[in-house]
Specification:
Seminal Fluid Protein  PDC-109 (Domain B), three-stranded antiparallel sheet, alpha+beta, 161 residues
């Protein structure tokens, strides 16, 4: 009986790894959008200082309740301080679960976040709501910015409330 339980646990673990790998591949290819990543957050591994030199750009990791996608391969082995929130040149933050990006339900902004033109963001430093907009860019387009909205007013954001 113990062998059957062990085999079942091993099978579930293998399926979980395969499902997580499939989700990561969909994130890398651009097929898995932010909402899918947020919906399947439990499948995304937690960041730890590791060698990411062979990890594809776009691979998602969790850190302190947020999801980040790899922007630049690097080796963080032995660099515990290279957390996704501390090194935005290496990581792009994905918005928090449940935030729709409407004016009534803005997305909490973060440094290194992938912003979407036409969505609303709450800047955690000043509490203001901002619309991500830029002349010549169409709604739905995306850009990774290393700054918060209040730092880029009239360039990438306009104050809404």
């Amino acid at each position: 009986m113990a062998d059957i339980v062990t085999m079942a646990k091993d099978e579930l673990k293998a399926r979980g790894k395969a499902d997580a790998a499939a989700l990561a591949a969909r994130a890398v290819s651009g097929e898995a959008d932010a909402q899918e990543l947020l919906d399947k957050q439990s499948m995304i591994p937690t960041w730890r200082a590791r060698d990411c030199t062979q990890v594809p750009v776009g691979t998602p990791y969790q850190w302190q309740g947020m999801i980040y996608k790899l922007v630049q391969p690097h080796d963080a082995t032995g660099n515990e301080g290279w957390t996704p929130d501390a090194v935005p040149a290496l990581w792009a933050a994905v918005s928090l679960p449940g935030e729709t990006g409407t004016q009534d339900d803005p997305i909490t902004a973060a440094r290194g976040m992938e912003y979407t033109y036409g969505l609303y963001y709450l800047d955690p430093e000043d509490g203001q709501i901002y619309l991500c907009t830029r002349t010549g860019e169409s709604e739905g387009g995306k850009i990774v910015l290393q700054y918060l909205p209040h730092e880029l007013v009239a360039q990438y954001f306009e104050v809404v409330g």
